[in-house]
Amino acid sequence: MNKTPDNAAAMVRQRQQDSTTKRRKVLDALDAMERTRCPITVSDVARRAGVSSWLVRQEPLLEAVRQAQARLSQGNMPSAEPARPSASSLHVERDLLRQENQRLRHQLRMLQSRLSELLGDHIEGTDLHSQHRLVQELTDQNTALTRQTGEAIQQTHQLQQKVDTLSSDLQAAHNVNRSLMAELNRPSRSRADLS
């Protein structure tokens, strides 16, 4: 027995069921977007429904998108009294919000990482308390360095005074040494003159 026709029929049924499910997701996403007054574009509807934009561009879905866009641009809601959202549209909306939230968290982590790389530091520790603590530490270090600089300048001044004193003492010693040498050299000349 050949089961190929049965398999083909099952595949066709499955394909129709998938198509119906996807179309329902598009309509639910469109309904959620219209209720929340989000701007409606084919690509946004496709993204929120999790289907290809090609499917959304097919009739009758494209006509439903155009009608929703027209209602939003005129400020009209689909019915005079607010319609209760269906459970499936609420589930779709919840899932879309979760996906969007996850995408935004991922984007935030990437931006924090990039900012951290640009700053050359990790993004942690940049809250107000950490910044105040860091400013206080830098102020304390600056005060300590200023004090050390003052002490070093004072020591340098004292050492310069010592150098000046020792230089004058050394000059005086040189003068005394020269006069002593001159005195020592004089008698020997006198003796040479006498002989």
Per-chain topology:
Elements: H1 4-35, H2 42-49, H3 53-56, H4 61-74, H5 87-119, H6 128-194
Helix pairs in contact: 1-2, 1-4, 1-5
What do these coordinates show?
This protein is an all-alpha fold and 195 residues long. Helices cover 81% and strands 0% of the residues. The chain has helices at residues 4-35, 42-49, 53-56, 61-74, 87-119, 128-194.
What are its keywords?
81% helix; 6 helices; single chain; 195 residues
Give the gist of this structure.
By secondary structure, the protein is mainly alpha-helical. The chain has six helices and no strands. Helix 1 packs across helix 2 (42-49), helix 1 packs parallel to helix 4 and helix 1 packs across helix 5 (87-119).
Question: Which term fits the overall shape?
Answer: rod-shaped
List SSEs in N-to-C order: HHHHHH
- By DSSP, the count of extended strands is 0
- Helices, by number, come to 6
Structural class: mainly alpha
